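Consortium newsletter contribution from the modelling node. Members have asked for a concrete example of what our holo predictions look like. Here is one, prepared for the zinc ion complex that several groups have been discussing at recent meetings.
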Amino acid sequence: MEIESSKGLRKNFGHLKCFGFIGGEPLFCIGPHWPFFLCLFTFLLIIGLFFICFVSPSISSSNTIIGVSVFCFLLINFLMAALINPGIEMRTVRDEDLEPDEPDNFCSICEVYKSNMTEHCDDCGVCVQEYDHHCPWTGKCIGRGNINFFYSFLFGLLICFLYCIVTMAMTIQEK
Ligand SMILES: [Zn+2]
Ligand SMILES: [Zn+2]
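And here is the predicted structure:
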C-alpha cells in the first residue's frame, strides 16, 4: 500500500502564480500586476536597444560594450525581482517557544503563522517574509526572496540613466 501525499504541489498562492518547486516551496512566482512589469521591461529594452544599436556605434566600440553590460545588468535584475519567490510564508506550525496564552500572529487568510517582519499583502493575497512593499512595477511584493535583486535593479536604473546622459553628451559633442 502506498501513502500518497494528500495535497500535492500547490500551483497558486493567493494571487501569485507559482512554478518550479523545490521541497514544496515555489522558486518562481508571477504577481497579479504582471502587465505593469511587462510594459516597463519592454520600455527599458527598447531604450537599451536604441542606444546600443543606433547611438553608441558612432562613438566607440567600448561605449557599446558598456551599454550592453549596463542594460543586461538592469534587465536581468529586474526580471529576477519580478520572477523569484518574494518569500511566501509557509509556516503552518505554531512557534513552540510561545506560551499557550501568547498571541501567535496567525493569518486567517493564508492559514500560516507569521514570523517576525512577515506581513500579509492584500494585492498578492499571501504573507511575505521580511515584507518591504508591494511593487506594481515588478508585479508583486518585495520581500526576503527578491529584495537584493530589487536593489540591484534600482542601482541598474541609476547607472543606465548615467550611461544614456553621457552617451548623448558625447554624441552632441562629436557633431
Ligand atoms: Zn496572510
Ligand atoms: Zn504584494
